């Protein structure tokens, strides 16, 4: 099946399951408060880390360097904030992992290995398409 369909159907099912399990252990009202507290604290910390990443990116620009890690890290923090806003425990855990710098570096380094320039081929023959051509004149001689 398509990965998007699995995610669209799977994530809410996991969240509902976790709501039921946690709610049966600590109570419905405590579960709601826990979801709200993790959202507020997570968004506050994502904002804090976002400003730190922005400051680090500005210092890279001042040094005339490309702030590539800061750009990717900023996107990860924005995604983490979105996950923290969504109600649920599984999305909160993933969001918190992306917010904290230590775990964010581990996650980003794992996925950046797939797309690094070392894995790409740099052969010149891969950059060009070889072929032959022939000029064809119309019947009118044009």
Task: Give an overview in words.
The chain has 142 residues and is mainly α. The chain has one domain (9-114). The chain has five helices and no strands. The chain has helices at residues 3-26, 28-62, 68-85, 89-99, 101-112. Helix 1 (3-26) packs across helix 2 and helix 2 runs antiparallel to helix 3. The protein starts with a helix and ends in a 30-residue tail after the last helix.
Number of separate helices: 5
Secondary-structure-derived class:
mainly alpha
Low-confidence stretches: none
Order of helices and strands: HHHHH
Tell how many strands the DSSP assignment holds. Answer: 0
Average pLDDT over all residues: 84
Taken as a percent bin, the fraction of beta residues is under 5%
Number of domains: 1
Largest sheet, strands/sense/barrel = none
Gyration radius (Cα, Å) is: 24 Å
- The amount of helix comes to over 70%
Span between termini:
54 Å
Shape: flat
Short synopsis of the structure:
The chain has 142 residues and is mainly α. The protein has helices at residues 3-26, 28-62, 68-85, 89-99, 101-112.
């Amino acid at each position: 099946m398509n990965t998007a369909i699995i995610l669209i159907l799977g994530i809410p099912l996991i969240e509902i399951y976790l709501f039921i399990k946690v709610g049966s252990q600590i109570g419905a009202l405590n579960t709601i408060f826990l979801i709200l507290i993790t959202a507020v604290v997570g968004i506050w910390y994502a904002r804090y880390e976002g400003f730190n990443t922005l400051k680090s990116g500005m210092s890279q620009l001042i040094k005339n360097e490309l702030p590539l890690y800061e750009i990717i890290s900023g996107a990860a923090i924005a995604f983490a904030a979105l996950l923290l806003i969504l109600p649920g425990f599984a999305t909160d855990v993933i969001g918190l992992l992306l917010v904290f710098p230590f775990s964010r570096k581990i996650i980003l380094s794992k996925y950046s290995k797939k797309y690094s320039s070392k894995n790409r081929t740099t052969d010149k023959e891969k950059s060009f398409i070889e072929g032959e051509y022939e000029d064809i004149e119309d019947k009118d001689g044009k």
